[in-house]
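In line with agreed milestones, work has continued on tokenised descriptions of protein folds. One protein thus recorded appears below exactly as we store it:

>
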Amino acid sequence: MAEAQLETYVAEVVEAVATAAPVAGAFVLGSALLGGFDPAASDVDLVVVVEPPLDAELLVARLDELGTPFRKLELVVYARGAKPPAYELNYPDGPREPDFWFVLDAAIAQERADGWLELLQPVSHEETRRAAEELLAWAEARSEAVHAARARHYLEHGNWITKKEAQA
């Protein structure tokens, strides 16, 4: 049931993006990609790649109208050929989020999401490692144990674990 609701919602968001720019591709990230998606507690992490230009004002208005049946939508829109973290729109949080989040999402997506590297420039292992170090420092400063555990695991083993695995 939750998977069908998630698929329907993602399709609605992608359709909203398509009213603001031609869509080249869309990727569900986060717990929906890695496992452990909980409709009551998880964000819907979505990346959409568009052919520029993007009418960001129109898109924000459409997304605000759409709402979400889940905890929160975290949408990042990139222009085709961009290199994360160089996004066009970060909805709803805007530019206040640290760049390391976008680099880490890109690193995970280029490993696990088919078609990612056809649309966006890759992030290197060095960029990913630096971003994981920044995540660890950020998480430790905020007592965010799960994020810190995930960053430590990546830095020690070179792969990402789910939030559920980090809590174990």
